[in-house]
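Minutes, project check-in
Item: structure for the 365-residue chain
Input as provided by the requester:
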Amino acid sequence: MARSLRDRPNAPELAWLGGHRGLEAALVRAAGIPVRRLALRSLRSVDMSVHAILDPIRLAVSVPQAAAILARERPAAIFTTGGYVAVPTLLAAAPLRIPVVLWDGNVVPGRAVRLTARLADAIAVSHEATGRTLARAGAPWFLTGTPIRDVTALDRAAARARLDLPPDARVMLIFGGSQAVRRFNAGVTEALPRLVERGHILHVTGDEAYAEALAARGRLPADQRPRYRPYPFLRDEMLPALVAADLVVGRAGSSTLAEVTALGIPSVIVPYPHAAGHQTANAKVLAEAGGARLIRDEDFDAETLAEAADLLADDATRARMADAARAFGRPGAAEAVAELVMAAAERRPLPDAADIERLSRGIAR
């Protein structure tokens, strides 16, 4: 979103208001955006600990803290994803009449999103069902999809050349995200001899499991080792890995699904089973449309992973899944949401829903 706003002719100045937990401070400052932090932590505790007592206190302290920051800086608009840290910010913004655009990428909005939606002037969503749910808050809603990086900047041939992959190889990308990645790593280690028979495997292991993955690679026959590429993480190379892939196996985070569908990549989704079931709900929408296959977290193991890899040899099925996935893709989501934010900031009437639809699909205005 920041990149999309900065690319506009009338680019606004940006500032970030966040909490005291998570990676946001380092990542945002590295992007050249000044950061202000509230007493509240970015993620609310779900376990019984001292934070169960301290978090309500931090919330109470954060409301006047946010009010002071907003009164001093008088932002033209606020863009929020509606998380827990947004609650004091939007409560403080209401009496100052600062317009708010809220975006949510989950099919089932969380409690903090449902609360803050009542304080929003416009709501952007990735799923129509979310829009219908949040419409009860009273603000107009727009189907934009999930803002993602520019996935058109690289074609498959260039991506495979960058990763030193054969142009005609069948490639599977496996990544479990930051949550419960051990189940993915265990499945890959056990199924690895069968996986490399099916194609080239790009595997994001996380730092802790990287040494074990290298050891598993060393146990493969010498001629098969180049077919297995473990990485502790992928940052700049994540987009090339996605573009190069014929099949993706991963979790069902909103951004992951948005990039996979924008690129039209068939996927095997293993939703993270916690976090109020958001990922399961996200995954079902794509799976029911035929763009993905769904495996429950408790059912995922070496056998189901090897069966998923069989799709690499089934060009017809993958082509059908790719078409279904691409129908969900909204590569222009960031520009669509940015248009809503700028309309709010400039006190213009909100755009027509059909115009936002075209922008989100990447269709020129």
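Outcome recorded: The first strand starts at residue 16 and ends at 18.
No further action items on this chain.
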